[in-house]
């Protein structure tokens, strides 16, 4: 049996992935509508940061000269993904106009509206019980509310689907990367995960059940069931 190392290394991908799922589960389980929506927005915030984190991990793995790295670090996440492809694989680039990329572009626009807020028009419609329900436009590809204030658990599911659909498309279809390598790259570069068989991160069955129910594509990395 190998000795456990004194120092290990985690990456932010794991934290944001886990927090996004746990917050969404809590949102669905909450009996209070305001609390549920607040938890859903927290989940979406975690999910929105994942593409940038993954793009930075990919660029970091190239071990670029400091001067070049500082220039590439200024790029948007999709441009970083494209740079990683062009640097790592001959004649490969990130295609435009495909649905996974369009979803990520849309999420980036939603993220920008979240951190650079502006006024949104809300249409109020009366209900049979005498109350009013606010409505906002939905986005084209993710079918999320264009108004971040009105995000709920359904929007959080759509955001999570979009991000992981893109990452699966990127690592599996374009990079042709194995699950073992993707897991080691995204979650940790610990020696315990870097063996020939690869490693797993384990989560409770309720965690896996939620991912399956939401139709989240995690086929590009390896996670196990406790």
Characterize the structure shown.
- This protein is mainly alpha-helical.
- It has one domain (12-118, 149-225).
- 54% of the residues lie in helices and 6% in strands.
- The protein contains eight helices and four strands, in the order H-H-H-H-H-E-E-H-H-E-H-E.
- It has helices at 12-29, 33-60, 66-72, 77-88, 99-115, 153-174, 179-187, 205-214; strands at 123-126, 132-135, 201-203, 223-225.
- Strands 1-2 form a two-stranded antiparallel sheet.
Task: Characterize this entry briefly.
This protein has 226 residues and is mainly alpha-helical. Helices cover 54% and strands 6% of the residues.
State the helicity in percent bands.
40-55%
The end-to-end distance, rounded to whole angstroms, is: 21 Å
- Number of strand segments: 4
Q: How many separate helices?
A: 8
Topology, please?
Elements: H1 12-29, H2 33-60, H3 66-72, H4 77-88, H5 99-115, E1 123-126, E2 132-135, H6 153-174, H7 179-187, E3 201-203, H8 205-214, E4 223-225
Parallel strand pairs: 3-4
Antiparallel strand pairs: 1-2
Helix pairs in contact: 1-2, 1-6, 2-4, 2-6, 5-6
Based on the model shown, name its key terms:
single chain; 226 residues; mainly alpha; two-stranded antiparallel sheet; two-stranded parallel sheet; 8 helices; 54% helix
């Amino acid at each position: 049996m190998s000795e456990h190392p004194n120092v290990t290394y985690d990456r932010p991908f794991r934290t944001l992935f886990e927090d996004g799922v746990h917050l969404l589960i809590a949102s669905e389980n909450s009996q209070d509508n305001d609390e549920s929506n607040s938890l859903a927005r927290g989940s979406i915030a975690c999910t929105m940061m994942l593409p940038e984190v993954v793009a930075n991990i990919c660029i970091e793995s190239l071990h670029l000269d400091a001067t070049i790295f500082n220039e590439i670090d200024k790029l948007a996440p999709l441009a970083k993904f494209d740079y990683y492809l062009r640097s790592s694989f001959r004649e490969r680039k990130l295609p435009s106009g495909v649905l996974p990329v369009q979803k990520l572009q849309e999420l980036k626009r939603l993220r920008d509206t979240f951190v650079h807020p502006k006024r949104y028009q809300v249409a109020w419609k009366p209900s049979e019980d005498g109350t009013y329900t606010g409505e906002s436009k939905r986005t084209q590809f993710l079918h999320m509310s264009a108004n971040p204030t009105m995000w709920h658990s359904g929007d959080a599911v759509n955001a999570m689907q979009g991000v992981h659909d893109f990452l699966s498309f990127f690592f599996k279809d374009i990079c042709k990367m194995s699950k073992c390598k993707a897991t080691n790259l995204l979650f940790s570069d610990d020696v315990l995960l870097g063996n020939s068989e690869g490693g797993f991160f384990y989560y409770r069955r309720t965690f896996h059940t939620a991912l399956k129910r939401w139709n989240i594509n995690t086929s590009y990395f390896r996670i196990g069931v406790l």
